[in-house]
Amino acid sequence: xxxxxxxxxxxxxxNKEYNVREVExxxxxxxxxxxxxxxxKRAYKxxxxxxxxxxxxxxxxxxxxxxxxxxxxxxxxxxxxxNCCAICKSPEPGHLHFSVDHDHKTGKLRGLLCNNCxxxxxxxxxxxxxxxxxxxxxxxxxxKNATSNTNSRP
Length: 154
Fold this sequence. Notes:
Elements: H1 3-14, H2 16-32, H3 34-48, H4 52-67, H5 71-80, E1 99-102, E2 109-113, H6 115-123, H7 128-151
């Protein structure tokens, strides 16, 4: 690409006024050309999202963009975890793939989790104190149930 064209792109990219106008222009075109827009969108999805190659490329891009790893890095992590969840040791991901667990503050990767464990950590806010309290709660309830079951009538 010609250097002038690159400089022009950079200027437009950083020009908020231009970006607002461009977004509005595209939105208006989509409204006026709705059928063409939908047809093009369906064709793109069919070509890139439904093929095995398209799915693989989308997955590779997602791993690289979100976590900075390649598919080979992901596979290596999975082998290091014996092809199972890092927490519950289940070999079933509960979804299409194991989730990449990471620290949301630092971005540092921690491991691969099944869907249930990943959601559990997320619901507890990745908060160590909250997770400890949940463990204490479960442990105390388990002990109470064990003692109450021995005192109950058959």
